[in-house]
Amino acid sequence: MSHSTQSSDGTIRCNWAHGAPDYPFYQVYHDTEWGFVQGNDQRLFEKLCLEGFQSGLSWRTILAKRENFRAAFDDFDFHKIAMYTEDDVERLVQDAGIIRHRGKINATINNAKRAIEMLETEGTLAAYIWGFEPSVQELSELEYPAATSPSSVALSKDLKKRGWKFVGPTTMYAFMQSMGLVNDHTPDCHCHAACEAQRAAFIRPTSP
């Protein structure tokens, strides 16, 4: 957990949420998305892909381009992305609105195919992902701010074994933080209690 700071509006937020004036959406992202439970397959897949695109970059850069990514990648419908051809790869490489990294673009298409394969065994992507939710004991033993956890390492290893790309343990921990598998809002942040309440009420999806 990071430290927190009182914003100009009097609200206490995690330090990282205090973006520059030209990034007003960054604070909105903190207040309405980061750490809140997500169980929708398409949104989970989107975040897995965007975390991969973030590799070597800042999340601000990715967030600023997120709507462009959604437009370019069919709103991250992995059934559609799995059907992309080399023409689509070239289209995306030429799209200045996204990160034009051929390796990451190809990884997204590859991961879409792997996601479809996962549905056959796990039922939903959400059931698979939430199966790696860290235990209370595991989280209590982490030293904050943490960059990885045993669960993120395990998720990374299993995804790689299944053929996924750009899913390292640090990337997977950031994914867990953002999708609500971990509540890393600092305890005095105004979002912490809301995320805890949502996590408590959330019915974890399970594989068949």
TrEMBL record:
Pfam families in UniProt: Adenine_glyco
Annotated Gene3D superfamilies: Hypothetical protein, domain 2 (1.10.340.30)
EC identifiers of the protein: 3.2.2.20
GO biological process: base-excision repair
GO MF annotation terms: DNA-3-methyladenine glycosylase activity; metal ion binding
Chain residues that bind Zn(2+): 14, 30, 185, 189
InterPro entries referenced in this protein's UniProt entry, alphabetically: Adenine_glyco (IPR005019), DNA-3mA_glycosylase (IPR052891), DNA_glycosylase (IPR011257)
PANTHER family given in the database record: DNA-3-METHYLADENINE GLYCOSYLASE 1, DNA-3-METHYLADENINE GLYCOSYLASE I
Protein name per the record: DNA-3-methyladenine glycosylase 1
Domain of life from the UniProt record: Bacteria
EC category name: hydrolase
Source organism: Pacificibacter marinus
Keyword terms of this UniProt record: Glycosidase, Hydrolase, Metal-binding, Zinc
